[in-house]
Request: fold
Amino acid sequence: MTKQIYDFSEGNMKMRNLLGGKGANLSEMTNMGLPVPHGFTVTTEACHEYQQTHQLSKHLLNDIDQAIQTLSQQTNKEFNGTSHPLLISVRSGAAISMPGMMDTILNIGLNDQTVVTIAELTHNERFAYDSYRRLLAMFGNVVYGISEASFDQVLTDTKNAHHYESDLDLTVADLKQIVSHFKNIYEISDKGVFPQDPKEQLLAAINAVFDSWNNHRAQIYRRENHISEELGTAVNIQEMVFGNYGENSGTGVAFTRNPSTGEAGLFGEYLLNAQGEDVVAGIRTPQPVATLKASMPDTYEQLLDIANKLETHYREMQDLEFTIEDGRLYLLQTRSGKRTPSAAVKIAVDLVGEGLIDQKTALLRLEPESISKMLHPEFDLHDLKQHNLLTTGLPASPGAASGQVYFTAEDAKRASDAGQKVVLMRSDTSPEDIEGMIVSQAIVTSRGGMTSHAAVVARGMAATGVVGAHELEVDYERKIAKVKGQIIREGDWVSVDGTSGNLYSGMVKTRDATIKGELSAFLNWAKQNSKMGVYTNADTPKDFQKALDFDADGIGLTRTEHMFFKPERLLQMRRLILAEDLQGRKDPLAKLLRMQQGDFYELYKLAGDKEVTIRLLDPPLHEFLPHDEKEIQAVSKQTGISPELLRDRINSLKESNPMLGHRGDRLAVTFPDIYEMQVQAIMNAVIRLAGEGITVQPHIMIPLTDSQAEMAWVRDLVTKQIKQSSNEKSIKVQYTVGTMMEMPRACMTADAIAESSDFFSFGTNDLTQLTFGYSRDDVGSFMPKYIEYGILPADPFQTIDVEGVGELMKIAIEKGRKTKNDLPIGVCGEVGGDPKSIEFFEEIGITYVSCSPYRVPVARLAAAQAHIRHLARQKAVKQPVQPELVSFFVD
Ligand code: ADP
Ligand code: MG
Ligand code: MG
Reply:
């Protein structure tokens, strides 16, 4: 029989898979000698067994009895005891933390008898009955599924009846009455009575925690966060300590650094005379932890000291849960704190500065995707002045977002499904709201503090969040919110600034964020620690400048066709295509040449000494032609060609499968003058820059190549033009001519193609299309089902298909480098900016990726992580490595 129960003294932080994160860390803290109430953990293995059989095994029941015995000895208290009753909490805790998703029950062991004993023993009747009513509510909710609201309503009614301001005003008599009301709720609900036997309470609670692994919100959370269904949860059973013991007691949560900004220093909140989730649930507005310094200086010092110890021990920002019972401090949980992407960067950089971690570890601590969230726009300060500041709350999660207001998660979800941008506005949020929160641009609450549920979730999702905007009065019934005499209705636009906490009416314009401070240092490390280059796909100086701001290594792909879509160019392009003979093509070509050389000049000039790769014309010609009668009439007027002739010409260019038709270098073979013009334009730009003392090495890329003979033919065309241009001006130009690798046949014959090619660049979009036989423009009709049914693990146009397309890439790389062993090989399709794909590209020896400007920093970090892990894996063959280096960000 395997061991299914571990005392806190037996476990450690490395056992998170078996003990769950909470259990493993409770053990670790116990062994560090920190003040943790005694307890034990039922393992995730026991949970697996339970998921099969839906009951606790005999063996486990036995072990639980034993463990409770041990706990009684450790605490000098007795479960169901008549003199010193033992009260315990039953706490869920999976290997990967899922805050608030699963259930916990406090004060187990109380019943009609022990509540009296405890009241007498402590001379604190209020505390005893306050604990009892809490147990009744939590047990009813978690075990029987009775809604929390029905219990809350009783509390609210009692408070209203006596005009109390807070739950603290409830008297012993009130609490006793509430207890009996709560028992009534059980009766009315018809789900079962509250079991008086503590043992029965305990077992029901354990069952419920195991069951909670499969509750709806936990499933949604796992799906959203890609957490495996298999993990299961552990259960922690722990002696209670009491933050609701009186004014010298309390409960709180603290981060060792600010989770919103990353700033160093203890950051958190607590409530006096409160228990458990009161702080997070926003029952009362909590106080900042710093105020403890004045009210309980010794406890504060102790907390500070423990926080530092934990951070040093874990080498990571920690999120602590603590309780003060009559002046004595207890630690109830520690874990890696959730934080905003910008806080994550600052913390990682600071921890390196403090010598706690090295650069590589720091780089592995941030999910590449979260970088793109940091680059989200900020409100345009100028436009902001035109908008009305509604109110200000706490800046819980930075960002700037606008959307239409909805007051319930369901309404928000529905509006979002209908394509609206939504802002979820509530007095507070709870785990049931998770679906609505996921779809919201921003989350606003009127109650709660920086560690409230809304704040934590918003930060976790990198959604903009403002909480505790207490001037806001949400009226769920009428679906409005009032603020300073103004009314916000469902569907109204508001703008939320999560950095300042400000809420504005209307939709405020945004502007691009920039890379500065810690992020810039962090991305520099990423560059130093990666092997792959990160280039950008850019067709305009504006895009290129953006990418350069993000420190792109250069341009990996300029799509020249995009340059022809401006109206005056489109006209020339159309004249070119519609011309009847070579003579008629001359004039539009000359005009296009002039415009195109200007484009290239600008790009080269911006590039400085960085490389720019230009791809010659790729799409089928009919893309440039008018598509409907109205356009035909207009073009006819512009060009003087009759509509009939136009229609004829358009018809003659029509193809059944244009993506497989007359495009790419096939155009070079049939209309060589177009490629010649483009090469001449490149050369004219190079020559002009040479005149300014700037040397440019042009890199010219040929699309759609499928054979060596074809590549050789086009290469010849291109090089002849280069030579002609440079001879005319008698200058020497270094250049390369490479091929897109996007045809399966090209991959299979890459050794031959490499003979006529100075570099390869995988066009993964076309390569994926042709490997699967999926038309890129038509996948929408079936791809979603393929992914839903698991026939495809992911959209192969977004994440590289390793087994098929990846295999072709490997073949092409191997063959290509057999011919030229230092052949540069890039990737310039959509997947070039995808972190998972980049991990694969590192393994197969890709030289560089090229992606859209905003993906550049994401790809940069992904490239660094891929390289760091690659090196770690190589080393791991010889010796075991830190798990952190291989698996991603454990908390
Ligand atoms: P979650 O995973 O949702 O955070 P926890 O198991 O951490 O749930 O429990 C929530 C809160 O209940 C804790 O933060 C703590 O305040 C309180 N709690 C849990 N166990 C105990 C205990 N043994 N004594 C006092 N408070 C407890
Ligand atoms: Mg909870
Ligand atoms: Mg907790």
In short: The chain is about 45% helix and 15% strand. The first helix runs from residue 16 to 31. Residues 100, 104, 277 surround magnesium ion (ligand 2) (CB under 6 Å). Residues 881-891 have pLDDT under 50 and may be disordered.
